[in-house]
Amino acid sequence: MPHGMAKEVEALPRTTMKVRRTLRGHLAKIYAVHWSSDRRHIVSAAQDGKLIVWDAYSSNKVNAIVLRSSWVMTCAYSPSGQFVASGGLDNICSVYRARERDARALRELAGHTGFLSCARFISDREILTASGDKTCILWDIDAGAKLAEYADHSQGVMGVSLSPTDPNMFVTGACDATAKVWDKRVSKRCVQTFAGHDGDINAVQFFPGGDAFVTGSDDATCKLYDIRADAELMTFAHESIKEGITAVDFSLSGRLLFSGSNDYQCTIWDTLKGERVGTLSGHENRVSCVGVAPDGMALCTGSWDATLRVWA
Question: CA angle, corner 167, sides to 166 and 173, nearest 5?
Answer without folding.
Answer: 80
